[in-house]
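pasting for ref
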Amino acid sequence: MKLTTGLKLSLVMGIDMAWGGILSGPGKDVFASMLALSRREADGFIGQQVEPVLWWCYGFNYIGQVWWFLRTAATHEVNPAGVNRARRQWWIGAGVLLLLGLALRIWLVWFIYPDLPMSAIGILLFILLVDLVVVYWLPCALMTPRNFSTAVPGWHTLQVWLKRH
């Protein structure tokens, strides 16, 4: 099955919305149960402290997506040097997003709620990694033009998998 650009974009948007729904629904309940707070205090903490951090991280990842799409759409370099430059830029973007996500979580844990249980910290780090995969890597891998296919790690594997399914 050949995925058109419109179908890929719809898939990216659907995955983004599903991930947001998981975090704001069942994910929120799991996280609240890990806190040593009453349900009311946990809901307040999550709503006023955790969710804004997650939204900021989501926003940064979304900006990274858009930056990558604009970068690859505006460049017609198909020579190896251009692809290598794009690959470095993609990895720099991933690194910056990882550092921003870690910085926001460190701020949340050290300054806002230093007594956060390790299980909750683990969940926050897990969400960071899934954000990078779902909101940065997957859209980049789906929407990267063929001439930049080696710039995004795993692009070829994802394309082969999509053709089989």
